[in-house]
Specification:
Mean pLDDT: 92
Order of helices and strands: EEEHEHEHEHHEHEHEEHEEEHEHHHEEHH
Structural class: alpha/beta
Number of domains: 2
Largest sheet: 9 strands, mixed
Distance between the termini: 26 Å
Low-confidence stretches: 15-19
Number of helices: 14
CATH class of the largest domain: Alpha Beta
Strand order of the largest sheet: 9-10-8-7-6-5-4-1-11
Number of strands: 16
Radius of gyration: 21 Å
CATH topology of the largest domain: TIM Barrel
Oligomer: single chain
Helix content: 25-40%
CATH architecture of the largest domain: Alpha-Beta Barrel
Strand content: 15-25%
Shape: globular
Length: 391
């Protein structure tokens, strides 16, 4: 069973127009050293939630982790190791970086600490679109950062944002071509999602065009040897994000820092818990807790910050995350985790979706989304969302 840690670093140069993550402009928040000290205290308080063990994955997300001094990233890795959560050559250590925030000196510090995967905040190679969403970098800075990573023959990935106002199909094709040419091993296409009335909601491609955009991205990447291993993730063989797979494979993960979420496989159906998303409240809670290491969130956190999952919630999670992966939903795992009786209630739904050509059985007899099913996955997941008393 794999285990990974996510560390949230909430510092940004500027808030992007579409962003809804718990982030702050870098000078509107406490200094990075103070924030990292809070992380250390949180590690000490919650280390008893999980038995110490070598980490399969460690992911620094944000925000822009590369904005803070590289030495602080190293210090976090070292602090985790002090408490038994060690990293080694087999650990996937990912760092999110933004263009123009990393130089040779920083990169050397990261590499010496074991960082072996970089997620670059590229989004698009069209300067006018970058300005529209308030990204501080330009396309040339992205290319310069990618050239730096290539010189060291590093594993890097980035997101491609589509369905932006005035974005064209030709422009999107060019973005994907550049991404491939630049040597990305992993690409995640994300459809811009903003509420109605948001400044970016005007002038967007209509829904049919959004579908066409995703199909074009998928075709381009597949033609160039990328595998779609999850609904929104493509990679060259062997370069899948092992950390993200933790989330979809029903494995445990520990989230540290502002707004971070975690999952424990405690009996009977697991627990989820999360940190506060306001920096002042997060700081107050961490500093106000005693220094003891707690064994369970329920002995430490307020009720509003954790939930013990019921069977119907666990089953819903299992079905949704399994179908997000192209490896599909394994009926044997379904029966083992829940029961034969529960499987007997789920299988008719899967057969009904198969008749609509939204699911198919692969050669391992796993249930998988068809191409059409991928495009309407939210509708499929709605039919596999279970309420209390249904299961």
């Amino acid at each position: 069973m794999s285990f990974g840690i996510y560390v949230h670093i909430p510092y940004c140069i500027q808030r992007c127009t579409y962003c809804d993550f718990a982030t702050y402009e870098q000078f509107k928040i406490l200094p990075p050293q103070k924030y990292v000290e809070l992380l250390f205290e949180e590690i000490r308080q919650k280390k008893g939630y999980y038995p110490p063990r070598p980490l399969d994955t460690l992911y620094f997300g944000g925000g822009t982790p590369s904005l803070i001094p590289a030495e602080l990233i190293v210090a976090i890795i070292q602090e985790l190791a002090k408490h038994g959560f060690t990293t080694g050559p087999k650990t996937e250590i990912t760092l999110e970086i933004n263009p123009a925030t990393v130089d040779e000196k920083k990169l050397e510090i990261y590499l010496n600490a074991g960082v072996n995967r970089f997620s670059v905040g590229a989004q698009t190679f069209e300067d006018r679109l970058l300005k529209m969403v308030h990204r501080e970098h330009n396309a040339q800075q992205t290319l310069d950062t990618l050239a730096l990573l290539r010189r060291h023959n590093l594993n890097f990935s980035f997101d491609i944002l589509f369905a932006l106002p005035s974005q064209t199909l030709e422009g999107l094709k060019r973005d994907v071509d550049i991404a491939i040419q630049q040597g990305a091993k992993h690409i995640s296409p994300y459809c811009l999602t903003v509420p109605e009335g948001h400044p970016l909601s005007k002038g967007r491609p209509i829904e049919d065009e959004q579908v066409s955009m995703f199909e074009v991205i998928s075709e381009q990447l597949t033609t160039q040897g990328f595998n779609q291993y999850e609904i929104s993730n493509f990679s060259l063989p062997g370069f899948e994000s092992r950390h993200n797979i933790l989330y979809w494979n029903d494995d445990q993960y520990w989230g540290l820092g502002l707004s971070a979420h975690s999952y424990m496989k405690s009996e009977p159906w697991g627990q989820r818990y999360w940190n506060l998303s306001n920096i002042g409240e997060y700081e107050k809670q961490i500093l106000g807790s005693s220094g003891n290491a707690y064994s369970l969130p329920s002995s430490h956190l307020p009720e509003a910050q954790f939930e013990k999952l019921d069977k119907h919630q666990s089953l819903t999670d299992f079905c949704h995350t399994s179908l997000r992966m192209m490896t599909g939903l394994d009926p044997e795992k379904l029966t083992t985790k829940f029961s034969t009786e529960t499987s007997a209630k789920v299988l008719p739904i899967l057969h009904r979706l198969q008749k609509n050509n939204w699911l198919f059985l692969n050669d391992k007899e796993h249930w998988c989304l068809t191409k059409e099913g991928i495009l309407i996955s939210n509708q499929i997941f709605a039919q596999l969302t279970f309420l209390e008393g249904e299961i």
